[in-house]
Amino acid sequence: MLKQSAQLRLKTRLRQVIRQYTRWSSTFSVMYRYCLLLEHLDTTDDVLVDVLPAPTSNKRLLALLKDLKKIKSVSKAIQETT
């Protein structure tokens, strides 16, 4: 039986990233990577389903990612003007 990371490796080159608490952009990075991985995750795997957010939560997470993208662009614009 393959571990989850080995199963994921068969589907995509994306890997786990350790969360850093120093900047809000790390939250964006984690959300962005999760949304990229979401389409590759096996939602029929009972072990995996137990630790994944519910499908309705995933919709909210995708909406949050859109908001974070807006914040990121504003943050970059502010940094460029200073």
Computed Rg: 15 Å
Unreliable residue stretches: none
Summing up helix and strand content along with how strands pair, one would put the structural category as mainly alpha
* Silhouette: elongated
Task: Set down the secondary structure blueprint.
Blueprint: H1 4-9, H2 24-38, H3 46-51, H4 55-81
Helix pairs in contact: 2-4
Structure report:
The protein has one domain (4-81). By secondary structure, it is an all-alpha fold. The protein has helices at residues 4-9, 24-38, 46-51, 55-81. Helix 2 packs across helix 4 (55-81). It is elongated, with a radius of gyration of 15 Å.
Outline of the structure:
This protein is mainly α. Helices cover 66% and strands 0% of the residues.
